[in-house]
Design a protein that fits this description.
heterodimer; A: about 270 residues; mainly alpha; elongated; B: about 300 residues; alpha/beta; Rossmann fold; Alpha-Beta Plaits; 6-stranded mixed β-sheet; about 30% strand
């Protein structure tokens, strides 16, 4: 160590109101972590979704009829993309904030001039980016197995982005609440995956007998899959009204935003 | 000198009910090296973490370079660098990436030349592409310092910086701290190595059981509370302190081989002349003598134990 002269004290900062460099730093750090494990991060969801397409889309789907005017193979595309996005969003975001808590490096975030909004932009922005990329890659992969057309690209992309952000926020909250790695997996594995399977990924809820059809309407994932499917195939393939789907995801987003804001405001489980 | 950090009536009570810090008020002067001493669990790290924004305040206010750490937290935090006690690092990150990350996190534009200088100053440049997990404990400690310096802080907190590092690195760190002070950085350090505070600090604060029990210039503290001792190596061991020395503060140690006379070095009359004269009159023969002054460690131990 040869600190032979004074360290120069010249620095450029960008605004005290919005720490753009801070957001960039968090975003790049999280994306770099993703790229380090790209094979596992990207290949794993693509492989499992491909298997679904092979089994349900090609093998079983070829023996199924159409749902409305949509072939069964194409019908399950939105649900399978949503399944991956929900689980990957929650896993990525929860791991992103839990890791620094577990490793103790959270001290740096807490002592930095970073607001709650900026921290969320960095962490959730990176996690949502990963989810959207995974969603797009699965969309492209699906084209290998089944023929489908997207009727309304803007609404499809809107759902993709809104769902990714909402569930990344949800994952962020779980990462703050979790006190062990195993608890990070509980919600994606034991809650989200069953809800997605039962939310119409592989079938239309109109195919269910009563009272299951009515009960299924209490599953919030139904609204997400239905809205996403609406963007692909129009109202004929949707289980609920598109307005209701958009409202559901908007409410979920607002609730998650409020929870994250409260966590940073109070320092709940972040600060002593 | 103006205070660069002003701590007023700050206290901390955890949710568990543990009172980590009684109301503390303290001014840290611009450009000084301030050593915060105290036993484990005294509240040193709590006070530092509250100033840095890691722990919430239960009461009181802290102002850093004119900015309230809660109301103007962004401005305040930009000026503060922290080297925490524990080696919290991202094991899989490269050295240069983690230091660059820290600079960005604190709202500063990339400055590769500055990062290079910090890494070179800390002898980390050759290791810039190494993953942190590949580094030794001492090198990891340097990385922590590099991260804290990455945003050119005006105030640097070093929480037990030399814990677990070898003597060479400790010396290097002392040199670095002195150079930082020369460049205008205010340094607040906590340490278990009292000689570290004795070597470097301008002022010393002693904290015990959550109470700041003393803040003093180091030299004044050692003058006020320091004691000197005159030790006589006796030619022949004796059984007890001779009766003729009753008026002096004398102890017989080392199985009667040494007579130790304690005196106040700042007193107008230290009593040394009279003591030695009396020894001669009593016919106590000695073959050698020497004096020694109590260290900051002695003072610290005595302060902590007396409270």
């Amino acid at each position: 160590m040869t600190q032979s002269e004074a360290i120069p004290q010249a620095a450029e900062t960008r605004g005290t109101t919005f720490n753009l460099f801070g957001i960039q730093a968090i975003y790049r750090f999280e994306m770099a972590r993703w790229f380090r494990t790209l094979g596992q991060s990207l290949f794993s969801p693509v492989l499992s979704t491909s298997l679904y397409f092979i089994v349900f889309g090609s093998a079983i789907g070829s023996r199924m009829g159409t749902i409305g005017d949509v072939s069964y193979g194409a019908f399950i595309v939105p649900g399978l993309i949503m399944l991956s996005i929900l689980t990957e969003s929650v896993s990525n975001a929860s791991f992103g904030i839990y890791m620094p808590r577990w490793a103790g490096t959270i001290y740096e975030l807490l002592s930095a001039p970073v607001s709650a909004l900026e921290a969320v932009c960095g962490y959730v922005g990176a996690a949502a980016t990963k989810s959207v990329v995974i969603g797009v890659v699965i969309l492209i992969t699906a084209r290998v197995f089944v023929d489908y057309h997207v009727q309304n690209w803007p609404v499809m992309l809107l759902f993709l982005v809104l769902t990714s952000i909402s569930f990344c926020l949800f994952g962020f909250i779980l990462g703050v609440l979790a006190d062990g790695f195993e608890k990070l997996q509980i919600v994606p594995m034991l809650i989200l995956t069953p809800l997605t399977f039962l939310g119409g990924t592989f079938y239309s809820i109109t195919m269910l007998p009563e009272p299951w059809r009515t009960l299924t309407l209490f599953n919030p994932v139904v609204y997400l899959i239905s809205g996403f499917r609406w963007a692909f195939f129009g109202a004929q393939a949707a289980d609920v009204n598109i307005g209701l789907s958009l409202s559901a995801i908007s409410v979920f987003l607002a609730v998650c935003l409020a929870a994250v804001w409260w966590i940073f405001k109070t320092g709940y489980r972040l600060k002593n | 000198m103006h205070p660069i950090i002003s701590i007023k009536d700050v206290s901390k009570t955890y949710k568990s009910g543990v009172k980590a810090l009684q109301p503390v008020s303290l001014d840290i002067m611009k450009g000084e090296i301030f050593a915060l001493l105290g036993p484990n669990g005294a509240g040193k790290t709590t006070l530092i973490n509250m100033t840095c924004g890691i722990v919430n305040l239960s009461s009181g206010t802290i102002v850093a370079d004119g900015n309230d750490i809660i109301r103007d937290y962004k401005e305040a935090r930009k000026k503060i660098g922290l080297v925490p006690q524990e080696l919290h690092t991202d094991a899989f990150e490269r050295v240069i990436d983690t230091v660059t990350f820290s600079r960005g996190l604190f709202g500063f534009a990339p400055n590769p030349a500055y990062i290079e200088k910090v890494l070179r100053d800390l002898s980390l440049w050759e290791k810039r592409n190494a993953k942190i997990m590949e580094l030794s404990g001492g090198m990891k400690r340097r990385v922590m310092i590099a991260k804290a310096l990455s945003h050119e802080p005006k105030i640097l907190f070093l929480d037990e910086p030399s814990a677990g590092v070898d003597v060479e690195l400790r010396r290097d760190m002392w040199e670095m701290v002195r150079n930082l002070r020369k460049s205008g950085v205010t340094i607040i350090l906590t340490t278990h190595y009292i000689e570290e505070a004795e070597e470097m600090a301008d002022r010393v604060g002693v904290i015990n059981k959550g109470q700041l029990i003393l803040v003093e210039e180091k030299t004044t503290l050692m003058r006020k509370l320091g004691k000197k001792q005159l030790t006589l190596e006796l030619a022949t061991p004796i059984d007890a302190v001779p009766d003729g020395l009753n008026g002096y503060h004398v102890e017989l140690v080392d199985e009667g081989r040494q007579l130790v006379y304690s005196f106040d070095a700042n007193a107008a009359d230290t009593g040394i002349h009279g003591f030695l004269k009396r020894i001669g009159e009593l016919g106590v023969d000695y073959k050698d003598l020497h004096t020694e002054q109590s260290s900051l460690e002695d003072i610290f131990v005595s302060l902590v134990h007396s409270k």
